[in-house]
Design brief:
Radius of gyration: 20 Å
Distance between the termini: 54 Å
Shape: globular
Helix content: 25-40%
Structural class: alpha+beta
Number of strands: 11
Order of helices and strands: HHHHEEEEEHEEEHHEEE
Number of domains: 2
């Protein structure tokens, strides 16, 4: 009987050593964000915590090697724009300035590194030369609703297409096809769900047939 108990104890010690590693603890939601770690289901929670700490958020952008500019708080119409930064140079250039809440900009920079780049290399064999977005800030409600949009605080970005040396890949033209371009877009959408609270695409509704809506709202939806 003692021999069985000893074997059980040894087995439990082995399981503990295998599972409860430093990496395991680092991935727990109460741990600080590690920008080098592969995103998981807790990453967006860690990013959201930085929404209330602009300096800590900017430090994470610095760790990523992103060139950014802090923007002054301001009001546009009835919408307050706080804790805003502009990405001056991240992994990819964009079709228009990329500026919004710091936590959102951090998610975008992590998304470029951990989602877009590997998906592009896997399915298309090259990285984008430019990403096209159709807007970040818009002082408005959600279309068809009285609820304030995440765009109203510059906490959302709409991605419409990706430019490559071999051509453009767009939601409107390539989504749902049996092609490498469509597989790339699907991988981007799925990977986005660990870095943004709201990920909406063509399958969500007709309003999103031509773009990915990515936001850091206090909810989780991936559709």
């Amino acid at each position: 009987m003692k021999g069985v108990a000893l074997l059980v104890l040894v087995g439990l010690i082995w399981v503990y050593q295998e599972l409860f590693t430093a990496e395991f603890y680092q991935r727990m939601p109460w741990q600080p964000l590690d920008v080098s770690a592969e995103p998981d289901r807790f990453t967006v929670t860690k990013i959201r915590r930085l929404s209330d700490d602009l300096l800590a958020c900017e430090r994470k952008l610095y760790e990523l090697g992103v060139s950014y500019e802090s923007l002054p708080d301001r009001t546009a119409g009835t919408c307050a724009l706080d804790s805003q930064v502009q990405l001056n140079q991240s992994r990819y250039p964009y079709s228009a300035p990329v500026k919004g809440q710091c936590a959102l900009m951090l998610s975008v920079a992590l998304w470029e590194k951990h989602v877009v780049a590997p998906a592009a290399l896997e399915y298309l064999g090259e990285e984008p030369t430019r990403i096209n977005h159709s807007g970040i800030f818009a002082c408005r409600s959600v279309r068809g609703s009285q609820r304030i949009s995440e765009h109203a605080s510059a906490n959302a970005i709409d991605i419409s297409s990706f430019e490559f040396d071999q051509g453009s890949v767009s939601l409107l033209g390539d989504w749902g096809e049996d092609t490498s371009e469509a597989k790339f877009l699907n991988a981007v959408q799925q990977g986005s769900c660990n870095l943004f609270g709201g990920v909406l695409g063509p399958e969500y509704n007709a309003l999103h047939r031509d773009h990915f809506h990515l936001d850091l709202g206090n909810y989780r939806i991936c559709s």
